[in-house]
Amino acid sequence: MMDLLLRCALLALGLWLFARALRGQADLYFSGPMAYISAAVLLVFVCLALFAPEISPQNPYDLAQLNILDGRLAPGSSSLDDAMVYHLGTDDQGRDILSGILYGLRVSLTVSLLTTLLAMTIGVLVGMYAAWKGGKAEAFLMRLVDLQLSFPSILVALMLMASFGRGVDKVVVALVIVQWAYYARTVRGTALAETSKDYIAAARCLGFSDARILLRHLLPNCVPPLLVISTIQVANTIVLESSLSFLGVGVPITNPSLGLLISNGYGYMLSGQYWMSIYPGLALLAIVAAINLVGDRLRDTINPRLKR
Amino acid sequence: MSVLEVQELQTHFSTRNGVVKAVDGVSFSLAEGQVLGLVGESGSGKSVTGFSILRLVDVPGRIVGGRILFRGQDLAAMSQAEMRAIRGNRIAMIFQDPLMTLNPVLRIDTQMVEAVQAHHRVSKKAALARAADALTRVGIPSALERLSAYPHQFSGGMRQRVAIAIALLNEPDLIVADEPTTALDVTIQSQILSEVQGLTRESGTALIWITHDLAVVAGLADEIAVMYAGRIVETGPIDAVLRQPRHPYTNGLLGSIPGNSRRGQALQQIPGMAPNMAQLPAGCAFAPRCAFSSEQCRSQTPDAQALSLTRSLRCHHPLPEGVSP
Q1: How many CB atoms lie within 10 A of CB B88?
Q2: CA atoms within 13 A on the CB side of B168
Q3: Which among A131, B127, B142, B214 is placed 20 to 30 Å from B25, CA to CA?
Q4: CB-based burial of residue B314 (10 Å sphere; 0-12 exposed, 13-18 middle, 19+ buried)?
């Protein structure tokens, strides 16, 4: 019961943040059919993920509920005991693909949101500090960022996961290490441009402390580009985590994400049992596209420089 | 008692091309309620002088010499924390471009309340009342409603009024205004000038008005200081200096203003360009452009000489008295 309340609160928090980001500019945001569709798709997916235990016909993690005799059933077939219909088919363990997708969405979204939040926090702190401080500190931090960005992220993540072992927490840590540098570089660039503007000089003229100028005056002005890359990065992270899971170094097999579901069904693709991979793949495609579209619209709405 | 006394201020920038002496031995003083017009071409060091007073010169610039006595305390020797307590509180600044000086993402009330609360322990309500009062004083109608607007909802002139209101918030002893009307159109400029004049008279705030527009200072300032290449070349009461300039540079500046009396004649202009500050000529920096320059000018830097109690000059060959521009 507590758990359900918590999830409702989480949903409310998300909606509130979204409404606050729009702040009375909802008509500007919802200016085309794509805006409605993408927002609706995202909302549906988030709700599906949040309330998966209530919605899904089966608990795909509870091995006692699975019947190996129901394995690899085509979409629409009934279970052996006629207790339920597998609308999207089953995998080789007899696991309902629909339930697998719902639970997989949870894993994928949790990992990507956590990663983005952590990576953004670290990146913003590093980037703003570098831009403000300048000199040797900036040179050192930015070379670190360059070094980080000079390796393909999937390669670094693969190496990290190979040494960490599987686990949701480990995936998050590995992805944060891979992604903080994007934020640091972007924020440093914006912060440098903003610092040279008069309103920062004016803030200094008013006798504000450095911390106050950084957090209250500089940071909010760095948000628009951050918002854009963070939404794109949420989508990217979902893909990256799925790739890791697909390659067998991501989340544990008992806690499948969308990527792991695709990977599990991949072996049966050529034998015509497409549903094990295709449906999780479609879900992945839809949510990534929805997040990107919502992010794009948000950027267009919020950025005061694009207005008028 | 003077509010501000700047003595032999030197602010230098160390660049790849050598040391740029942006401000080189500037001295002036300012009494309560007095308005000083600091005039000069671009790059003459007038803005750097203003920023030096607030100790906000960015690297590679540094105040390398002189004293800035503000009510008897030397600002140049103060710690950062002491300086912060003075900025925006005892000394305020107004910038050139009103479109850039207000934070675009914060509402006006947020910015004004913050400016009050940074220096005074007052409630938000009291700070808001003060902000509304300041907005009214600079001539913004229905101040209470305008408080909750964002900067982009104001026009350029209105934004500069808001910037001036923020400068006035803590009732400073001194305001440094760095070309605050340059970016505004002429009608707004004259409105703001007359309002600023009234406000300083009313509150006894001393004002340094940095500009390149002699017409602006003529109607506003009590004193004028003309800067050239980091030095004050002529200073004195505004009427005396403008009516009878003694430095050839001041004379040249006045001669280059279009006026009704010389309709049809070609405008006089000062020949040449402002010097490269990294490679100043020996002797008087103005000598290469000066019609009166001599061998002495090219070898020997003129010292400031007092013409009277209030006027002083840096020139080997001052224009004779009785010559009007």
Answers
A1: 27
A2: 27
A3: B214
A4: buried
Mean pLDDT of chain B: 87
Residues paired with residue B21 on neighbouring β-strands, in sequence order: B12
CATH C-level class of B1-82+212-260+267-325? alpha beta
* A63 within some domain: no
For chain B, report the end-to-end CA distance as a whole number of angstroms.
34
We report the CATH number of the domain holding residue A108 as 1.10.3720.10
Task: Pick B119's closest partner by Cβ from A197, A205, A207.
Answer: A207
Amino acid letter, residue A271: S
Q: What are the residues whose beta carbons fall under 8 Å from the beta carbon of B96, sequence distance 6 or more?
A: A198, B178, B179, B180, B182, B183
Query: What is this model's ipTM?
Result: 0.79
User: How many domains would you assign to chain A?
Assistant: 1
CB spacing of B56 vs A201 below 8 angstroms: yes
Contacts of residue B149 in chain A, CB cutoff 8 Å? none
Rounded Cα distance between B175 and B48, Å, is 15
Instruction: Say yes or no for a CB contact (<8 Å) between B100 and A199.
Output: yes
pTM > 0.80: no
> Distance between CA B210 and CA B189 in Å, rounded?
14
- For residue A133, name the pLDDT band (cuts at 50, 70, 90): confident
Look up the domain containing A114 and give its range. Answer: 76-306
Q: Do B87 and A205 touch (CB under 8 A)?
A: yes
The domain ranges of chain B are 1-82+212-260+267-325
Q: Of A167, A130, A140, A157, give the one whose Cα is nearest residue A253.
A: A167
pLDDT tens per residue, range B117-166: 999 899 999 999 999 998 988 888 888 888 988 888 888 888 888 998 99
